[in-house]
User: Which sequence fits this backbone?
């Protein structure tokens, strides 16, 4: 479907969107006709919200709200307008033979759509979370931006050798975000990370989320067999790792995976030495400000974890911000 909408998204958000939209309106008196603007403002929520207002409240893109709303309207009103409603208005009339799908500003690869399709929620429980605003439009990048603006000098990272403020962390994240986007990575793409608990792990985590990517974590002790399984199964487009960990030649394993798996296009290595075939982490940290046309929203997946695989192969567990 358009704009990253899945059937699961329609099932989860459809009823709450219909309830919040202009389809259901509760008004007291006639403040619109009487031009009582104060009363209009008071009754705004009951009069129904626009797609943009609903999107900001429940954590979807406005386009996603529009697609879901039209499908639900078709369900309730028994009308066949799920194509007609995209570009009517302003004197336009529906001409089936002239219709063209609107140009999408959001493109998600098939792998990213498959990950979204794996997200299933109980619609009744989701409706409660949305109505109580427990599910909202918060994201990691939104939190980081807010902290950097409100408390720029407060320490975000403290190590044995340095302190990094929220403003400094935001700058580092922006640099890496630009570097990763420069590799062609975009919304819905999976970036695997096998790093220990160091500053660069957090920077990568926040940068991947900033452009709408999904971070896949790889346990540090994992060697060749486990790494191969996880990268192939997740269809990661890039991986960030150390040159080696203990006796494990990590970057060489990653480069071999790049040759074997079509989805894996980039191996980024963190370390002082140049590795043939790999991209240096530091080279992606050039000072820059990212331009993100489609920033993440609350309903987006941002993290792909895996179970331990005790009884069988590990299972992928995608998580959204909500």
Assistant:
């Amino acid at each position: 479907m358009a704009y990253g909408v899945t059937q699961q998204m329609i099932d989860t958000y459809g009823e709450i969107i219909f309830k919040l939209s202009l389809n259901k309106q509760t008004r007291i008196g006639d403040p619109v006709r009487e031009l009582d603007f104060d009363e209009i403002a008071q009754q705004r929520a009951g009069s129904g919200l626009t797609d943009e207002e609903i999107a900001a409240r429940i954590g979807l893109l406005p386009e996603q709200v529009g697609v879901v709303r039209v499908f639900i309207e078709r369900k309730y009103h028994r009308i066949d307008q799920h194509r007609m409603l995209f570009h009517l208005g302003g004197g336009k009339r529906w001409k089936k033979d002239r219709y063209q799908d609107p140009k999408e500003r959001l493109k998600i690869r098939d792998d990213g759509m498959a990950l979204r399709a794996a997200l299933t929620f109980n619609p009744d429980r989701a409706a409660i979370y949305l109505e109580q605003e427990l599910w909202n439009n918060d994201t990691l990048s939104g939190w980081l931006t807010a902290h950097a603006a409100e408390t720029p000098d407060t320490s975000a990272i403290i190590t044995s050798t340095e302190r990094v403020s929220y403003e400094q962390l935001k700058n580092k994240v922006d640099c890496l975000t630009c570097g990763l986007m420069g590799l062609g990575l975009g919304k819905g793409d999976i970036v695997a990370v096998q790093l220990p608990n160091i500053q660069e792990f957090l920077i990568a985590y926040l940068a991947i989320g900033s452009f709408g990517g999904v971070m896949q974590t790889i346990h540090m002790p994992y060697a060749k067999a486990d790494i191969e399984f996880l990268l192939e199964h997740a269809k990661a487009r890039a991986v960030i790792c150390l040159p080696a960990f203990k006796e494990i030649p990590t970057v060489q394993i990653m480069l071999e995976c790049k040759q074997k798996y079509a989805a894996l296009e980039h191996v980024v290595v963190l370390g002082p030495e140049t590795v043939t075939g790999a991209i240096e982490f530091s080279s992606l940290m050039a000072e820059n400000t990212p331009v993100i046309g489609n920033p993440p929203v609350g309903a987006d997946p941002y993290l792909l974890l895996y179970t331990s695989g005790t009884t069988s192969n590990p299972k992928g567990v995608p998580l959204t911000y909500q």
